[in-house]
# Entry
Amino acid sequence: MSAPSMMLFHSPASPFVRKVMVLLHETGQSERVAVHSINLSPVTPDADLNQGNPAGKIPALRLDDGTVLHDSRVICEYLDLQHVGNPLIPREGPARWRRLTLASLADAIMDAAVLTRYETFLRPTDKQWDSWIEAQQDKIRRGLSNLEQEHIAELASVFDIAAIGVACALGYLDLRFPDSGWREQQPKLADWYAQVSQRPSMQATDPSR
Ligand code: GSF
# Structure
């Protein structure tokens, strides 16, 4: 077995990093990537991570020639072009735009959840802005409701970039907001999530394990 040729800046709690890790598992490429764990927040940057990645966010993927790819969408697209199995991002046609738009909705839920986490956990209490937190929560609620009402069949049809994104978004809500009660409002989404959570790729990347 050859040594890993790429290095992924990683933190187990990051839902965006988890997307990349799940895609690596699902496409049989985990051993191509060495994981470099860092402790990161917007107010505690990492100088090594910032090289070639000025926004200083994870995930970032350093290739063997030193090129740095970011963000999770670009990294997933790159890795999906590197394996011989069925693509997890449709290459062309209407399916490509439907699945990428669904994946973007998942990213938007993750963004709102991560920003809520920063506001409620990192920001000093006296500086927190309740209306802003509530607006992020509304984005999450609208996103979950849209998935429940319109996208369950599509999600269940294939475990691709869209399904991976939604699964990682739900996993992050469970990790950071365990009392959010999203399952009561979205029972079909909850059933779907219970099933996909059993996949080896989801089990291997479960941040609560
Ligand atoms: C979002 C990455 C992100 O917010 C992507 O990769 O798709 N659009 C990007 N990463 C967070 C960590 S997280 O997933 O909780 C991050 O790097 N935060 C540090 C910062 O400075 O914002």
The chain has a mean pLDDT of 97.
